[in-house]
Design a protein that fits this description.
377 residues, alpha/beta, Rossmann fold, Alpha-Beta Plaits, two-stranded antiparallel ribbon, 15 helices, 16 strands, globular
Length: 377
Amino acid sequence: MNTKVSIARCQDYSNAKDAIKEALNLIGGLEKIIVPGNRVLLKPNVLAIRSPEDAVTTHPAVVSAMCELVLEVGGIPVIGDGSGIVKPGSTTTAQALKASGIEDVASAYGAELINFETSGFVEVDVPGARQFSHLHISRAVLEADVIISLPKLKTHELTLYTGAVKNFFGTVPQKNRKQAHFLEARRRFGEAIVDIYSVVKPQLAIMDGVVGMEGNGPSNGTPVFAGVIMASYDCVALDIVASELIGIDPLKVPTNKAALERGFGTEHPEIVGTPLEKVKVGFKRPEGGITAYVPSFLMRILRKQLAVKPIINTSNCALCKACVSNCSAHAIEETGKVLKINEEKCIQCYCCRELCPNDAVEIKKSLLLKLVTRSKS
């Protein structure tokens, strides 16, 4: 596979289409993967019910540009995703697609908009699986002729960085997502994500790196200008370059490491277009992911003392129980009108923090960890 990664500057979302065309031309264009009549699934990151300005979701200008470009080569654009649960029993994905502006994009281009939560899943075998020998994958994904990942450039409290490969976590049902988070270890979680990726087999990734998210991503960080659009036919190669672009060691990202170990991508992709050194920007690291930088021998000896624990700020909590719905370990307990995280059960996957609509879940670091991480800043 062609593992070139292109980088194009993009100062504003009004220039998104031109930047995407530039990035695509540098690697070979859409014609290499799309023939007229192909059903092309565009998979943005629509994590939660947030507006484009929050930099949590893929910007609608990127999705709009891709719809235009797919149509120009004769493809049939289809847009789909499955977000996390915010309220029990709610159709979160539908609300998230609307709030993100992506529903309007689909309407403007007459593109089918698919809610993975409600459109059905198919059980598939996973050859060479490391964690899941069987998975349920969105029917829309399996029926597509071409699959394109449209991730947002963000940090992530569990995986340090989230991008083109992790974007396909949205293609499996909540049950599989909870099982993956319950694996606890970052390494095993990364392997689970790669199990999903190995089944989906995307043909292209276009990274929305115009405005990314630093700090406590993927939903509680701070929007930050990065000014790039990136493209690659290889999602792993793109993630290697993108994580380096924001100042994170690519091999510290569990999805990158797991993918390389399985033979996906390459550790040293060829970069074309704007040189990486000219667009590098140091994103603030996530608090929850900081333990990835602590030496493994120290983690084994001082695991409890180096824990990064989520806690619920009851003054901000609206008792929507999104955290309860998303906790794989069933560690969140209700006492009267107060929710509390049971530290003994907590596996520190940060789903509660990621999907809380009121930012009521905060991070608590031990004194020892504060000292260790201060030396790394």
